[in-house]
Design brief:
Helix content of chain B: 40-55%
CATH class of the largest domain in chain B: Mainly Alpha
Number of domains of chain B: 2
Number of helices of chain B: 17
Oligomer: heterodimer
Radius of gyration of chain A: 27 Å
Number of strands of chain A: 2
Number of strands of chain B: 11
Strand content of chain A: under 5%
Helix content of chain A: over 70%
CATH topology of one domain in chain A: MetI-like fold
CATH superfamily of one domain in chain A: MetI-like
Order of helices and strands of chain A: HHHHHHHHEEHHHHHHHH
CATH architecture of the largest domain in chain B: Orthogonal Bundle
Mean pLDDT of chain A: 90
CATH superfamily of the largest domain in chain B: MetI-like
Structural class of chain A: mainly alpha
Structural class of chain B: alpha+beta
Radius of gyration of chain B: 32 Å
Distance between the termini of chain B: 45 Å
Largest interface: A-B, 102 and 102 residues
Strand order of the largest sheet of chain A: 1-2
Largest sheet of chain A: 2 strands, antiparallel
Chain lengths: 369, 480
């Protein structure tokens, strides 16, 4: 009995610093945020109770509605795109090869550097005369070359597979050995065509797409709740780019545990690569998918850094998110701070996050993972 | 095709088929490597391109090219020699009393265009905009004397263009820029050489920084740069140009110092608090244990924005204010703990994720190991300090590295807490004020150089301790 008591005393002594911090910076902070959300506090004068007024006002506030729209579109689109691409890339790379450590390090590079570094680099690339627009121009210019290359690859591949099949060898249309030959020969042939001047890049006007200083949306003129502001799309591209590698490596680790025999059996049953992807790959990595979806949703719903770093490079309405809305109402520059209003926005964000987490918990449980 | 399988294969056929299949495996591995390489290029590309572009005079040059003068050997030797001539410093150059800087510039003069001597001027030009622009500086223009131009070479040349062959001659002028009399050592020597319309700039001792006025003026940022002053010009500028107007202290250096201090203190605080809390949660049985563990998990789900309102006020006013006296006054911060690293450390000290990691690790150490190593009756503190903690070195190492990365990259709290003066900021927040001052005028060289510099410590750490980062992913991503 004595040791039990001593254990408890020791435990709380060990936990003392942590509990003190938890009490002040989490429990007290959460309670105060809830309290402030029912008041008109402005950082300077004592708060007055205003009931639910802040919550009602939120839905009449144009900036909040923009923030809500932006956050939801951002979370859904980015999560969907990056989860899908990460899975596809992992499936393509799912092969036990040596030297993966080097590539893994390279893949991680964007996700270990700070949000400020990455965002500044992307801001630079998204300038009107920046790398992204230049790449767009280059792609447009080289359409004929790419098409010619693709045509030669397909023609060579078809010819080779037909030849192999006549030799009674079980070559598939995507046979890798033949594909290597097709790609190399087509590359050489295209190069020849270009240097001899038979084939040349198209003349196109320079791409002058405005990514940042614009109020336009994609699709242009779409209804408010479906319109993705272009600067937000720029942040989406950046976010997908930096997060894909992490998720892809998580998928890759999971895929390497899927028994090869499953695919072999499916191949014998005549399932092609697409069918194998949907029937075997996707179901066997479902637990990782749930994890990735949850991490991605939580991360994207709380996106703040990129908006703050974009700053005056893009119109506020076009990039504001719920997290930034809270900050903006707390420190609105020359205006009076609206802490109560900010707190109500923060509560909304918290509830949204918790709903996502609980929903996915529930889903995971009902699926039996 | 599969119908063939029914027919029995001869031995030779069997071997041929095996070879055929082996070839396919090799080809598939080759394709996977090629794809991995492509992905790696895509993911590292922007960082790499930004790093290379940070060497450029103007990273916004269009079309973006990798033919960067700063990467040409010819310019390296010239820059070192010019730096030597300018201030006897082949690394960072400069312009010192007694210097005589020799320079040559070549033009193509098409037939029919009259040859005329270009005009050479040392301009009074400020280095960039922003924080450096308000500092009083010495101008090389006040001390430099440009000599007479001497026609060094005059050879007929033909330039082949797709349309027609352009005939003319290439002329080379030589001159010197001298620092006569006494005066201060000046850190840069800009130069503008303006030729008549029709004459085309070809090359010069050092490649021109840019061509202005429809190509008539070849403009040089510094013709006595020294090797590093030339190649890493934007990097030197981040340290030299961005200074506090009041104290002339290099702000970038101050930010680096702040970032390291913050990271170091945060590592110590995290290791101590998390290992103690983790030990209690993993090893001791007591009332409220599961409640505390629930809180550990739950607190990670609540968005920062919910907590930051109150936490900001705690830093500003203290926890409770009674008659104007607050708890923070006790710590000697009567004006609150905003704009101080101490405040930043306090407000970021709660790290439930670290507690979780330590708890998981301590649970993975078998209890018997701990008990066998310890004589009966030892206090919990001695068990923790003498037995468990030494065994936890791998976990503490991982936590150290992850905490360093987190602190070094941290944006939200420094952004809230450290607003003024400039010198109190950490590196990410300082970079943001770079963007605000230099981005507006399109001076991206400085911003990219700052960004690259600030990424280096974490990248080095990552390359050396890759394993820990990968473990961190599995820690963060809910271990099974």
């Amino acid at each position: 009995m004595g040791t039990k008591r001593a254990d408890a005393v020791a435990a709380y002594l060990f936990l003392l610093p942590f509990l003190a911090l938890l009490t002040i910076f989490f429990l007290y902070a959460s309670a105060r945020a809830v309290y402030f959300s029912f008041t008109d506090y402005d950082l300077f004068r004592p708060p007055n109770w205003v009931g639910l007024r802040n919550y009602v006002d939120l839905f009449n506030d144009a900036l909040f509605l923009s923030a809500l729209r932006n956050s939801i579109l951002f979370a859904i689109i980015v999560t969907a795109v990056q989860t899908f691409l990460a899975l596809v890339m992992a499936a393509v790379l799912n092969q036990r090869v040596r030297g993966i450590g080097f590539f893994r390090a390279a893949f991680y590079m964007p996700s270990i550097t700070s949000s400020v570094v990455i965002t500044l680099i992307f801001l630079w690339m998204f300038q009107r005369r920046g790398l992204i627009n230049y790449l767009g121009e280059t792609v447009q210019r080289s359409v004929p070359i790419v098409l010619a290359f693709a045509a030669i690859v397909v023609a060579l591949q078809v010819a080779q597979v037909a030849w192999e099949r006549r030799r009674r060898l079980p070559a598939a249309w995507t046979d890798p050995a033949l594909l290597v030959v097709s790609l190399l020969v087509a590359g050489g042939a295209t190069w020849l065509l270009v240097t001899t001047g038979v084939l040349s890049a198209r003349e196109v006007p320079p791409v002058d797409f405005i990514w940042l200083q614009t109020r336009d949306t994609i699709p242009s003129g779409a209804p408010f709740w479906l319109a993705v502001p272009i600067p937000l799309a720029a942040i989406m591209i950046q976010n997908v780019f930096t997060t894909i590698p992490t998720f892809m490596l998580m998928y890759l680790a999971a895929l390497q545990d899927v028994p090869k025999s499953l695919y072999e059996a499916a191949a014998i049953d005549g399932a092609n690569a697409t069918a194998q992807f949907f029937r075997i790959t996707i179901p066997s990595v479902a637990p990782v998918t749930f994890l990735v979806l949850t991490l991605s949703m939580i991360g994207t719903l709380q996106m703040f850094d990129q908006v703050a770093i974009f700053g005056d490079a893009a119109p506020l309405r076009s990039v504001v998110t719920l997290a930034y809305f809270v900050y903006n109402r707390m420190f609105p520059g020359a205006q009076t701070p609206e802490v109560g209003f900010a707190a109500a926005g923060a509560m909304f964000l918290a509830v949204l996050t918790l709903v996502v987490v609980l929903l996915q918990r529930r889903l995971v449980r009902s699926e039996g993972y | 095709m599969r119908a063939d399988a029914a027919a029995p294969l001869s031995h030779a056929e069997q071997r041929a088929l095996e070879h055929w299949q082996a070839r396919r495996r090799w080809a598939r591995a080759g394709l996977v490597y090629a794809l991995m390489l492509a992905f790696a290029i895509v993911f590292v590309g922007p960082l790499l391109f930004a790093t290379l572009s940070s060497l450029k005079t103007d990273p916004l040059e269009y079309p973006p090219t990798l033919a960067i003068p700063q990467l040409q050997l010819r310019n390296w030797t010239a820059a070192a020699q010019l730096g030597q001539a300018g201030a006897g410093d082949r690394w960072f150059g400069g312009f010192a009393p007694g210097a005589v800087v020799p320079f040559e510039i070549s033009y193509f003069v098409p037939d029919g265009v009259a040859l005329s001597e270009p005009e050479v001027v040392v301009p009074r030009r400020r280095p960039g905009a922003g924080l450096g622009a308000v500092l009083a500086i010495e101008f090389a223009a006040d001390y430099a004397t440009v000599s007479e131009l001497e026609l060094r070479a005059d050879v007929p040349v033909t330039i082949e263009t797709p349309a027609e062959d352009l005939r003319g001659r290439q002329v080379t002028y030589a001159f010197t820029i001298a620092y006569e009399g006494e005066g201060p050592v000046i850190d840069r020597l800009p130069l503008d050489v303006t030729a008549d319309l029709g004459m085309r700039y070809v090359e010069s001792t050092l490649t021109a920084s840019r061509l202005e006025r429809r190509g008539r003026t070849a403009s040089f940022n510094d013709v006595a740069p020294g090797l590093l002053g030339y190649v890493l010009r934007n990097y030197v500028r981040t340290f030299n140009e961005v200074r506090s107007p009041a104290t002339r202290e290099s702000l970038f250096l101050a930010w680096i110092g702040n970032s390291f201090t913050f990271a170091f203190v945060r590592i110590v605080v995290t290791l101590v608090i998390a290992s103690m809390a983790g030990y209690a949660l993993a090893r001791l049985r007591f009332r409220g244990r599961s409640l505390i563990f629930m809180l550990v998990l739950f607190s990670q789900m609540v968005p920062l924005q919910v907590l930051f309102i109150s936490n900001y006020l705690v830093l500003r006013d203290g926890i409770v204010t009674i008659d104007g006296f607050t708890l923070s006054s006790l710590w000697g911060y009567p004006g609150g703990m905003l704009n101080s690293l101490t405040g930043l450390v306090f407000v970021t000290a709660l790290n439930a994720g670290a507690v979780f990691i330590m708890k998981q690790f301590f649970e993975s150490i078998p209890r018997e190991v701990e008990e066998a190593a310890m004589i009966d009756g030892a206090s919990h503190w001695r068990r923790y300090w003498n037995v468990v903690l030494p065994m936890a070195r791998p976990a503490l190492g991982a936590l150290t590295i992850l905490t360093f990365q987190g602190a070094w990259n941290d944006f939200f709290w420094p952004f809230i807490v450290l607003t003024s003066p400039e010198r109190i900021k950490t590196l990410p927040i300082g970079l943001l004020s770079f963007r605000n001052t230099y981005g507006a005028v399109g001076d991206w060289g400085l911003i990219l150089a700052g960004a690259v510099l600030s990424a280096i410590p974490v990248i080095i750490l990552f390359v050396v301790f890759q394993r820990y980062f990968l473990e961190g992913v599995s820690f963060g991503g809910g271990k099974e």
